[in-house]
Structure formats: structure tokens, C-alpha cells
Design a protein that fits this description.
13% strand, alpha/beta, 3-stranded parallel β-sheet, 290 residues, 8 strands, disordered N terminus, 5-stranded mixed β-sheet, 38% helix
Length: 290
């Protein structure tokens, strides 16, 4: 059962969502407008490996009376697994951090080019260009390639594109050359931000392996875990909460919103955080209380 974060007198805080700057369906300004509509008071736009949407989102937030927190979701590697780390409350003008994002951007373009090459057997003219257009001119991800295949009538639906061509083990399932976990965490720390382990149960790790990941994350300088996220079972919530307590880490939360119409990942609609955890937003440069 989902529980909306109490909004009065407590703030409604959503620290994980996506716009068209990465793989979301709404432009940054549209995303902020929807967040305001849903009662969100504090929002972090955490697009994949880019902060390109932040200026537009911040401008819209001022108009809507919503507080924006600097955010990004960075891809990295831990052992053989692709892991996502959310960076929060960092200095978006940091030259070193901007250089790191540029590296991530090139990694994504390299991956997109390989995906297009792998799918060339489908004989879709200008597939990379079409996927890029669907991504608003930014780096296309697998969802954009999937939609391009639908538009070209190669498959009837996006789900079919993933099942036949882009899902796990299929030709279009291309792994990018991401940096190591510790390096990404250090990028965030050097920019004055807080590194958060994103949606820990989505990696399909065993309990033992997840404990090892969290331990390594903390040793690398990671400070928080996403405890309360949309679509999470009560069992997973309890396990992650206990892991957070045991490792002495801060707790974060977010909807991981990508598109309208999915009740399980709507902005501001987040499982209530368990008692006894220290919220990450208490440690922002301008702490959020409540």
C-alpha cells in the first residue's frame, strides 16, 4: 500500500525523478508543474548522467513556489553490476563535476551508437537519428530506440521491442563502460554533494551481496540509501531500513517518476519512511526540517 508523504505541516519531499533531459516523458518545466499539482514541496530532478534539465526546472520551481534540490543519477560499476548513485545538493558549477558529467555523456553516446549498430539488421533507416529526435536531441536510451521501432512498424508496441530486441540478453541490451562505484561517489563528494545509493532492491542482488554493496558504498564515502521508494514491498522496505540503520547511513526517498499514468511511481506518492531513520534532507546545505 502506498502512503503519500504528509504535506501539512510536514513537507512533501521527492528526491528522485526524471525529465526529457534523460528518459522521462515530461519536459523539466512540465515535471515541476505536475509536482506542484501533486503537493510536492521539495523536488530533486535526478536525470541520468546529466543536469541539463536543471535550469528550466529551477525557473519553473520559482514560479510554482516549489524548492528545487540539485540532483543527478549517475551510472557506475560495482564488481560486475551496473549500479546507480544519486547525487544530491551538489555545486552544479563545479568544473570537475561538469567534466565528469561530460565523460558520462560520451559513455552514453558510445552506448547509443553500439545499440544502433546492433539493431541495424532490422533495416530501419536512420535509427540512431530517429531515437535521438525522440530523446529531444539528447542521448537516446533503450526506451527511445523502442519507440523508434514502433514508429517504424517493426514491432506493434514498446513492450514487444524490449521483448524481442532490447531486453536482457537481446542484441540491443548493450552495457556501457561506466566508471567504478568509488570514483562516482568521489565526484559527488568533491562537488560538495551527498551520494545516495539508488533503489537498492532493484539490482536483484541476494541479501548477502546487497550487504556487501552497501558496506563498500559506505567505505567509498557514500552517505545515504534510498529507503522509501515507489513500488516497493513492505518486506523490502523493512530490510533496506534495517540495513541503513546497521551501516549508520542517512535515509532518502523518491518516486523515480518517469511518466504520467503509473500510480506506482507518481510524484510525491512514496511509501512512508520507517521511524528511527535520519533523513538525508536534514543534512543539505540548507536543511529541510519536518
Amino acid at each position: 500500500m502506498f502512503v503519500t508523504i504528509p504535506q501539512d505541516p510536514k513537507p512533501c519531499i521527492d528526491l528522485h525523478c526524471h525529465s526529457t533531459a534523460s528518459d522521462g516523458a515530461l519536459a523539466p518545466a512540465e515535471l515541476v508543474a505536475r509536482a506542484v499539482e501533486k503537493g510536492v514541496s521539495h523536488l530533486a530532478l535526478t536525470d541520468h548522467d546529466t543536469i541539463a534539465g536543471l535550469p528550466e526546472a529551477k525557473e519553473a520551481a520559482i514560479a510554482g513556489g516549489l524548492t528545487m534540490i540539485n540532483g543527478v543519477e549517475l551510472s557506475c560499476v560495482w564488481r560486475t553490476y551496473t549500479i546507480h548513485v544519486v547525487g544530491l545538493d551538489f555545486d552544479e558549477t563545479s568544473p570537475a563535476f561538469l567534466k565528469a558529467l561530460s565523460i558520462q555523456n560520451e559513455n552514453r553516446w558510445q552506448r547509443a551508437r553500439i545499440i544502433a549498430d546492433k539493431l541495424s539488421r532490422l533495416k530501419v533507416d536512420s535509427l540512431l537519428e530517429k531515437a535521438t529526435e525522440l530523446a529531444g536531441g539528447d542521448v537516446p536510451g533503450r526506451p527511445h530506440f523502442a519507440q523508434a521501432l514502433v514508429d517504424a512498424e517493426v514491432v506493434p508496441k514498446v513492450a514487444h521491442a524490449f521483448k524481442r530486441h532490447l531486453g536482457a540478453g537481446k542484441p540491443g541490451d548493450v552495457k556501457a563502460c561506466w566508471p567504478e562505484l568509488g570514483e562516482v561517489v568521489q565526484w559527488i563528494r568533491d562537488a560538495g554533494g551527498i551520494a545516495v545509493l539508488a533503489h537498492p532492491r532493484k539490482y536483484k542482488l541476494s541479501a548477502t551481496r546487497l550487504r556487501e554493496l552497501v558496506s563498500d558504498f559506505g567505505k567509498a564515502g557514500g552517505r545515504a540509501i534510498e529507503v522509501s521508494i515507489s513500488g516497493q514491498s513492505s518486506g523490502d522496505l523493512g530490510f533496506v531500513a534495517e540495513l541503513t540503520r546497521r551501516e549508520g547511513l542517512l535515509a532518502s526517498q523518491g518516486s523515480d517518476f518517469h511518466f504520467p499514468g503509473a500510480a506506482w511511481c507518481e510524484l510525491g506518492r512514496i511509501t512512508k519512511m520507517p521511524e528511527g531513520l535520519e533523513p538525508v534532507w536534514h543534512h543539505f546545505r540548507e536543511p529541510v526540517r519536518g
